[in-house]
Design a protein that fits this description.
seven-stranded mixed β-sheet; four-stranded antiparallel β-sheet
Length: 114
């Protein structure tokens, strides 16, 4: 069984920064696909960024240049550094890990407001 534990969300002012972390525990072997998604109020869940098994990275256009995804394979952890946050980034952020199947974290709230 695989569990994902997310942390790092919170309330931040526009222009501020946050760093999200997601650590996987359980039966994950090799290097999985890891990604971050978000769901804003009244919106569908959307991709924020992902990093593939081979290390390729993809960002949503709305966060490119502001957010950085990275991983620590030994720690089975994926990070999302978020800079220059705007109110439009307000959402619940979910971690996704794909090994033999897809697993989702419980979500962490990010609120950008003055």
């Amino acid at each position: 069984q695989v569990q994902l534990v997310e942390s790092g969300g919170g309330l931040v002012q526009p222009g501020g920064s946050l760093r999200l972390s997601c650590t996987a525990s359980g039966s994950i072997f090799g290097i999985p696909f890891m990604g971050w998604y978000r769901q804003g109020p009244g919106k569908q869940r959307e991709l924020v960024a992902h990093i593939t098994t081979g290390g390729s990275i993809n960002y949503a256009e709305s966060v490119r240049g502001r957010f950085t995804i990275s991983r620590d394979i030994a720690k089975k952890t994926v990070y999302l550094q978020m800079n220059s946050l705007t109110p439009e980034d307000t959402a619940v952020y979910y971690c996704k890990v794909v090994a033999t199947m897809a697993y989702w974290g419980q979500g962490t709230q990010v609120t950008v407001s003055s």
